Amino acid sequence: MNDIVRWRADRAGVVSDVPARRFLLDHGLPESTILFEADREPSEVFSTEIGDEILRIGSFDDDFDFFLDVGTGEVLFGTDRDPEPVFANTSLSAFVACVRWVDAEFPFYSSSDDTQVKWAAGQQAREVLRSVDLACIEAPEGFWTSFAHDVAIGDYYEGSS
C-alpha cells in the first residue's frame, strides 16, 4: 500500500497547472489506498459539460473515478466521462494527505459500536479533513463531505473494506 505511481514528463505535460504537474513528477500518487487506486497508464483529457478539461487519475471502485482538472489542479470525483464530476480537493497534495489519513485511521470503529461512537468518528473525520483542505469538507455535494457522512452513519467499520 506504500508504492507510488510517479508520472513521466511526457504524461504530466498535459497538466497545465504547474503545482499539480510538479506534484505528479516529484511525488506521484499512492498506488493503492482504501479509497483510491492510481491509474498506471495515461488517460485522455476530456471536457466536462461546463468546459473544464479533466484527466482520470485513478479509481474509487468499479463505478467511480477520481479526476484532475488540468487547468486548476483540483481533484474531482465521478463516473467515467462524467459530464459534471463533484469536487474532492483543491490540490493533489491535499487529496493524497486525505487518502493517506483514511488509511492510517481505518477502521474508524467496530461494527458493534453504538451510534454515538460512529457519529463522533464522522465528526473527527470532518475536523481532520477540514484541517487538511477546508474546501473539501465545505463542498455540499463533495466527495469528502459524503465520506464524512458515511463514516458518521457506520459505513467504515472493521471488515467493511
Description:
This protein has helices at residues 9-12, 18-26, 92-105, 115-132, 134-138, 143-152, and strands at residues 4-5, 29-30, 37-38, 46-47, 53-59, 65-69, 75-78, 86-89. The mean pLDDT is 93. By secondary structure, the chain is an alpha+beta fold. Helix 4 packs antiparallel against helix 6 (143-152). A hairpin with a 7-residue loop joins strand 7 and strand 8 (86-89). The chain has two domains: 4-91, no CATH class; 95-152, no CATH class.
Helix and strand sequence: EHHEEEEEEEHHHH
Measured as a percent range, the helix fraction is 25-40%
Report on the biggest sheet.
Answer: 6 strands, antiparallel
Question: How would you sum up the global shape?
Answer: globular
Strand content: 15-25%
Number of DSSP-assigned strands? 8
Counting helices, strands and paired strands, the structural category is alpha+beta
